[in-house]
Amino acid sequence: MPDKTYVFENHLVQRIDAHVLISGSPLHSNINKHYAAQINWAAPGTVVRAMVGNAELIGPCVAIDGGVVHGIEMEAGLVAMIDPAYAAALRPPERRGFDAGVLTGSVWDGDPSSAPTMLADLLSPGHEVPLDARVSDVLRWLEEMELSGRWADVSLQAALRLVNLSESRFLHLFSAQTGTPWRSYLVWRRAMVGMSLVLEGSAVGDASMRAGYADAAHFSRQVSDIFGLSPKDIILIASGRKELESRIAHHVGPKMPECDIVS
After folding, report:
1. Residues contacting residue 158 through CB under 8 Å, at least 6 positions apart
2. pLDDT tens profile 165-203
3. Do 50 and 114 fall within a single domain?
4. What is the distance between the alpha carbons of residues 17 and 46, in angstroms, rounded to a whole number?
5. Is 106 a domain residue?
6. 96 inside domain
């Protein structure tokens, strides 16, 4: 999937494969949880403050797994929402049950152009073992369907025909190889397609139809579940017409021990 960059008044949004990176100021978030794993880098000379449960994490970079309740406060920095097929790199075997941690070895230089390399350095350990060719074929097919504007035709049955596997065998293989269930991954990719269309100027209703949603309300609900914000809020915030709020500025809990999870 070709990389894409969307420039707004206060933020820069980058689409790198099926990852989303947002840089700018400010980058606060309310206490929430969402499907995507998230990596947060502070701008040079600043720190990330994150609340996870009753613990406070402070450092140059904080990683938070998907589905974990958290709040973020950053005056400026870079946030990456991670393609679930690669998020296993943030869950090394020695840290089973990982929810969040400070990545002491990862520091952002403040240049958005360095973000792709920095992200690749963190996520590459998750794919040291090559994917099964059939899973790779399906991931490439998803990219082709997006590029050709045919995402509304993506379905489990179409994927099964592509790889010539039974439903049970394919679902097991995909989950075992990527660390995420097929249906959950499809939700992520469909939301990525819809949000890319919105960022390129499509109306929410048109984007939802072209991405294969039942309606705009369904699209908005799934984007909110994944990113913690609705499509309209993402656009308003990126364009500077709405400020991100923080509910953690005065919530100080015990500081969580640092853990460098960079191999």
Report:
1. none
2. 999 999 999 998 888 899 989 998 999 999 999 988 899
3. yes
4. 28
5. yes
6. yes
